[in-house]
Design brief:
heterotrimer, A mainly alpha, B mainly beta, C alpha+beta, B: mainly beta, Immunoglobulin-like, 2 domains, four-stranded antiparallel β-sheet, 1 helix, C: alpha+beta, Umud Fragment, subunit A, seven-stranded antiparallel β-sheet, 7 strands
Chain lengths: 90, 177, 188
């Protein structure tokens, strides 16, 4: 099964990208809740609330889920394998 | 957040907590609206005829026929979390055996604010019969119009719109002409 | 195909597998505890139910979630929406109370003991034209003992997952299988 999973493109992003995604989704979702609640309450229409919330969720997943290049600008730089080749004798 | 699967997982976890919070906020916001509109209810006439019902097809029994007038403005009950109103007219009486009876004789579902200005001259929708099959010696009954607000999300509320000032007596059973 | 998984198991070690199993059991046990605890608080054998039929439309649609209570001290009133289960019927029914008749306890002894009136009820679905007599399977009236609870709160659509699982059993097994595999193979 893991072979199967590995064959699907996983859309990996780097560590800085992960942090960015985390922050973006938190901010967007919480503001979406607050704004859609206030808008719906002000207009006295619950459809406004769920429309706004649904739209912002769709937009968020479009921004956050695909591995856009902006989430891959800080690739991990591994050290050369040469220097680590020697093992210290104890 | 490394792969797309873990991102979907994390975002949907956050999304479900946010949705829960939003739904809870909507349910709680209903507390602000505590309109309790009143209206008028008048019983125009009551007749009692012998008849049969599906339930007791073979027993001889009395059925009461009630004509009533209702006027009420229920638009204040419609707020952003009101899905529909359920209106019902019920008769309450305690018969000679001490049985307390509540019988719904008419109801209506109101789904839009535009339809919430109620002005009905109607008669009972449902069979109105006594447990003992006869309205003889049954004390006068009170009639009241009640509502149930059903929300999109949250809890159900109930209230009373109107009640007859004095109990209305049942007339003698008369043969149907 | 499963050689990888077996390898993963070996690498994780026996203790780790046990720990995962324990985690899994904790999740199930706490779920059961919450359910039973709610049942005690609300005095209802199933405090949350999913609407299975359309007989209360447009109030409740299939898949809506209802929260019930069944207070001991309270009598049911007309207009209350109740969930009841007739002995012999497989599924509970959600319908509105149309008539109540509180018959006082018979005999002076029972009266002095302050026994509550036994309540006879008749229900009807908002979307049905006639009352529920035919659903009662030969009973004339609904009684307190048949009633699971009174609807207090409402959450739309959420229960649709369970209906989907009932309609398509494959979905249920697929979901259970995937969840089980994930729980066992997750490496934290």
């Amino acid at each position: 099964m893991s072979n199967l999973l590995q064959s699907i493109p996983e859309g990996r992003i780097d560590f800085a990208g992960q942090k960015l995604v985390d922050t973006i989704s938190k901010i967007v979702l919480i503001t979406a809740v607050v704004i859609s609640f206030i808008a719906g309450f002000a207009l006295q229409d619950i459809r406004v609330t769920f429309g706004l919330f649904g739209a912002s969720t769709a937009l968020l997943s479009l921004v956050v889920l695909p591995p856009w290049p902006m989430f891959n600008q800080h690739p991990v730089k591994w050290l050369d394998s040469k220097g680590n080749g020697k093992e210290k004798a104890s | 957040m490394h792969s797309i699967f873990s991102r979907i997982n994390n975002v949907s976890a956050l999304l479900s907590s946010c949705t829960m919070a939003l739904l809870a906020a909507i349910a709680l916001s209903t507390l602000v609206f505590n309109a309790d509109p009143k209206g008028d209810l008048a019983i125009a006439s009551i007749k009692v005829y012998p008849g049969t019902t599906r339930r007791y097809a073979k027993t001889k029994q009395d059925l009461a026929f009630v004509n009533f007038n209702i006027t009420a403005d229920l638009t204040p009950l419609f707020h952003w979390n009101t899905k529909q109103l359920f209106l019902y007219l019920e008769a309450e009486y305690i018969n000679a055996q001490g049985v307390k009876n509540d019988v719904v004789i008419w109801d209506r579902i109101v789904r839009r604010k535009e339809d919430a200005n109620i002005n009905v001259a109607g008669k009972n929708k449902y069979n109105f019969r006594e447990l003992s099959a006869s309205f003889k010696n049954v004390p006068p009954a009170n009639y009241s119009l009640k509502y149930n607000v059903m929300p999109y999300v949250g809890y159900l509320t109930y209230g009373e719109i109107a009640k007859t000032v004095e109990p209305v007596a049942f007339p003698r059973s008369q043969p149907r002409v | 195909m499963f050689t990888e998984e077996i390898k993963a198991f070996r690498r994780l070690g026996f203790r780790h597998v046990l720990l995962q199993a324990l985690n899994f059991a904790t999740v199930i046990a706490s779920g059961l505890m919450i359910w039973k605890g709610l049942g005690i608080i609300t005095n209802s054998e199933s405090p949350i139910v999913v609407v299975l039929s359309g007989s209360m439309e447009p109030a409740f649609y299939r898949g809506d979630l209802l929260f019930l209570t069944n207070p001991v001290s309270e009598q049911y009133k007309t207009g209350d929406i109740t969930v009841y289960k007739i002995p012999g019927a497989d599924i509970p029914i959600v319908h509105r109370v149309l008539e109540t008749h509180d018959v006082p306890p018979k005999g002076r002894k029972a009266k002095e003991a302050g026994e509550p009136a036994s309540q006879l009820m008749l229900t009807k679905g908002d979307n049905n034209y006639v009352d529920d007599l035919e659903l009662y399977q030969g009973l004339q009236w609904l009684e307190r003992k048949h009633i699971v609870g009174k609807v207090r709160g409402f959450l739309p659509y959420v229960g649709y997952v369970t209906i989907a699982m009932n309609d398509f059993p494959q979905l249920k097994y697929a979901l259970l299988g995937v969840l089980g595999l994930l729980a066992l193979l997750q490496r934290e």
